[in-house]
Write a sequence for this structure.
């Protein structure tokens, strides 16, 4: 998803238990995805303060009861939060015993800087990386820095050459907003997979027809890696309108009217969002999706309700 908001959404006030849990061994996400059962994963963004990070780790520790296959941590624009990302994925994996994936984006980074981040990730035992181009600062066009990369596929090529990481990539059922058309976007996605992406996670979408149509086109184009649907539980009407406008996703008319009718009543909005996501996930899994990646926006109750309903 990649457009996190502030840490004010953190809902769990307690501190993390200090106990070290267990070290997760080598776990590649592509292997998890190919192993059969649906893989459920949660995406979080690094909070701004140490207290926020502590709360987030507490939330993730609680979510362990839902047995996520992995948890991912987003990378901030221009790498401003790279230290926090590395620290969080390290703690999630090594202290909480949950497999962790670090997002990494090209925005504002030279190749050498990206290599430095990868060295640090591998130094703390992380072996799953989501290779992204990243978004430009608001209102600007994306531009690679001198000595940096212009496309996620360039980053994937560099990571692949290092040999040790399982590489994820982003995919867009409703087409990436910068792409001139769906065909060009798909041809670029093929390049990303050829460059080394071992699996793909989609941008959020609310109509499963978009995902199934996209997977069909991707398979016809020769992409054979797992394509995990990305689902965002809606908890706030204004926020989902803002996100979809930014990332080019559509809110189906019936969902939009249900949300607008519930707007102003937080619990009703949450219920509309949860009901929609449960129905979406059920159909996705029944029709062969390898799992579901939840954009939690650091709010865990909605994701917990959805996953509990699914199970
Ligand atoms: P690319 O794959 O490089 O694609 C971007 C555009 O360039 C597309 O229009 C594509 O068609 C085109 N393109 C790709 N390759 C080529 C090529 N070889 N030649 C010409 N054109 C090409 N953002 C963050 O900042 N941090 C995050 O942690 C984050 N996490 C995300 C997680 C997921 C699952 C998703 C779906 C998105 C995430 N994002 C994140 C947002 C992402 O960075 C933006 O959507 C960004 O605009 C594109 O990133 P990308 O990796 O898809 O780029």
């Amino acid at each position: 998803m990649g457009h996190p908001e502030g840490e004010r959404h953190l809902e769990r006030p307690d501190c993390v238990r200090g106990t070290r849990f267990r070290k997760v061994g080598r776990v590649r996400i592509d292997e998890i995805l190919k192993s059969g059962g649906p893989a459920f994963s949660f995406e979080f963004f690094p909070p701004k303060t140490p207290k926020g990070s502590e709360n987030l780790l507490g939330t993730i520790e609680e979510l362990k009861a839902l047995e996520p296959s992995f948890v991912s941590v987003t990378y901030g624009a221009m790498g401003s939060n790279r230290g926090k990302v590395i620290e969080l994925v390290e703690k999630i994996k090594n202290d909480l015993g949950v497999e962790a994936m670090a997002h990494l984006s090209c925005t504002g980074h030279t190749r050498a800087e990206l290599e430095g981040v990868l060295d640090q990730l591998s130094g703390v035992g992380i072996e799953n990386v989501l290779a992204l181009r990243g978004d430009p600062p608001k209102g600007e066009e994306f531009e690679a820095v001198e000595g940096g990369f212009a496309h996620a596929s360039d980053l994937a090529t560099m990571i692949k050459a290092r040999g040790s990481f399982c590489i994820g990539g982003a995919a867009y059922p409703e087409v990436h907003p910068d792409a001139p058309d769906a065909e060009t976007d798909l041809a670029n996605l093929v390049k990303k997979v050829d460059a080394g992406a071992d699996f793909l996670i989609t941008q959020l979408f609310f109509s499963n027809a978009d995902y199934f149509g996209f997977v069909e086109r991707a398979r016809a184009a020769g992409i054979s890696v797992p394509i995990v649907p990305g689902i965002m539980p809606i908890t706030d009407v204004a926020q989902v309108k803002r996100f979809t406008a930014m990332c080019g996703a559509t809110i189906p008319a019936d969902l939009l009217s249900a949300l607008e009718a519930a707007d102003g009543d937080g619990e009703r909005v949450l219920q509309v969002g949860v009901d929609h996501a449960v129905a979406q996930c059920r159909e996705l899994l029944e029709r062969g999706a390898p799992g579901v990646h939840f954009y939690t926006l650091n709010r865990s109750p909605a994701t917990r309700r959805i996953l509990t309903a699914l199970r």
